[in-house]
Amino acid sequence: MATVPAGHNVDWYRVPLPAGRLDELNRRSDLLGLAQSLGYLAVVTATGGTAVWAALHQHWWLLAAALIAHGNVSAFMINGVHELVHGTVFNTRWLNTVFVHLFAFVGWINHRMFWASHAEHHLHTMHFPYDQENVFPIRYRFRDFVREATVNPMGICRMIMHHWRIGRGRLAGDWEKHLVEGQPRHAAIAAWSRWILIGHAAIAGVSLAYGLWIIPVVVSLTPLYCKGVFWLLNNAQHVGLVESVPDFRLNCRTIIVNPVFRFLYWHMNWHIEHHMYAAVPCYRLGALHRAIAHELPHCPRGLVETWWHIIGVMWRQQQEPGWTYRPRLPGEVQAAEAKTAMDVAPAPASTKAQPRKVWQCAVCGMIYDEQRGRPSEGIPAGTAWADVPESWRCPACGVGKSDFRMIEITPGVRPPRPAKAA
Questions:
Q1: Helix, strand, coil percentages, rounded to 5, for the chain
Q2: Which of 110, 339, 361, 405 falls between 20 and 30 A from 26, CA-CA?
Q3: Could you read off the pLDDT of 76-127 as tens digits, one per residue?
Q4: Sign of CA dihedral 152, 155, 157, 160
Q5: 3 CB contacts (<8 Å, ≥6 apart)?
Q6: Residue 151 backbone phi and psi in degrees, to 5
C-alpha cells in the first residue's frame, strides 16, 4: 500500500436535477426502510430456517439446496451494512443503528472500520492513493469466482485472523493507519471486532453443547460458502473502468438486473447514481436513474452482458497493460452519429483502391463492414451502420454499438488496431 498524502479534493461532475427534485429523492422513509431491511432479514431467516429443518430431519438434498440459497442471500449483509452506515435507510436514527449492528455482527463486518474506509472511497473514487478500496487495475480470475461460489475455508480463516488483529488494536499497512491511527474511533473499532469474535464463539459453544451443529453453520459460517451471485454483482462496480477522472459515469458501472437481485443487492446495481448522489436512499435510486438516464452511458442488462463485456476489457488489458475502457457518454455518441451523417456522400470513381468507412469495436478490434453485413446474425450485406439494430452486440466481446468507432480502411491494407481509450 502507498502512503496517503493529505489535501486532495475532486471536483466531481453531477448530472443537474430540477429544483426540488433532489430534495424529493433524498427523502428517507422508515416504512420503506423497514420493507427493505425486514424483507431482506425475512429471506435470510427463511433460507436459514429451511436448512435447520432439513438438517434436523436429515433431508440432505434439501439441506444442500437450502445452504446454497442461504449462502448466496447472506453474502449481501455487507450491502445492508453499506447502506445503513450511510445513514440513509431510515428517517429515525436509532433504526439505522439497530439494523447496522445486527447485520454487521451476523456478516462478520466491522462497520466502523468499513465506514472509515468507505467515506474516503466516496470522496476520492478510483483516485489512488486517496482511495485504496479499489486499486487500479482491478483484475479477477475465474478461479476467484469458483472459490467464492463454492467453499472458501481460507476466506473465513483470514476473516477470523483479521478481527483477532483488529480486536487487539493492531493496524496493518499505511491505509489502516491513515484511517484509524491516533483517532478516538480506534478503540471503538477494536471493541467491535472483539464482540464479533466473542459472540460467534458463544453461538458455536452453546449450539455444539446441545448437538445443534447446524446453527453455527447458518449463523456464523455463512462467509464460508456459496457467494457466487454476490460476487458477480458486487465486483462489477468499478472493474475495467477509468481511474483519476472527476466523473462517476466513467469510473462506476450501473447495470440493469431483475427485481430479486436488485432487492438482495440493496439496489446497488444503480452504482453511478449512488456515487453521484450518495444521500439518496437505496430504495429511491431507481427513480434517480430515470431522472438522469439521458446523461448516462450504456448500462448493460443482466449479469451475462455485464461480465461478457468485463471479460473482454480485462483480456485486452492483459494484452495492452495500461489500456482502460472508457464508456462513451451520450453527447459523444450523438457527435459521432452526426459526423457519420455528414460523410455518407458516395466516393468518386477511381481506378485506384479507395478508402472506405467501416466500424471498429473499441474493445476488441472487431470490424463491421457495411458491404458485407453479418448474414449469420440476420444482418444482410449492404446494411448501413445506422440500420443495424440498437440491440446488436459485438460478437467477439459483447459491447454495444456505442463502443464502435468509425475508421477508414483501404482494400488490401490491414486495418489499424483500435485506438487506446483516454
A1: 55, 5, 40
A2: 110
A3: 999 999 999 999 999 999 999 999 999 999 999 999 999 999 988 998 888 8
A4: negative
A5: 129, 174, 178
A6: -130, 130
* Residues 8 and 51 sit within 8 Å (Cβ to Cβ): no
Distances (CA, A) of 383 to 85, 290, 291, 339, 349: 52, 32, 34, 18, 21
Q: How many CB atoms lie within 10 A of CB 281?
A: 23
pLDDT at 280: 96
Cα distance between residue 255 and residue 167, in whole Å: 37
Ordered domains of the chain (ranges, CATH)? 21-302 (no CATH), 331-409 (2.20.28.10)
**What is the model's pTM?**
0.78
Helical H segments across 87-184, by residue range: 93-106, 111-123, 142-149, 153-167, 173-180
Q: Which of 50-59, 130-139, 183-192 is predicted least confidently?
A: 130-139
* Of 280, 267, 2, residue with least CA distance to 122: 280
Q: Which helix (H) or strand (E) holds 360?
A: strand 356-361
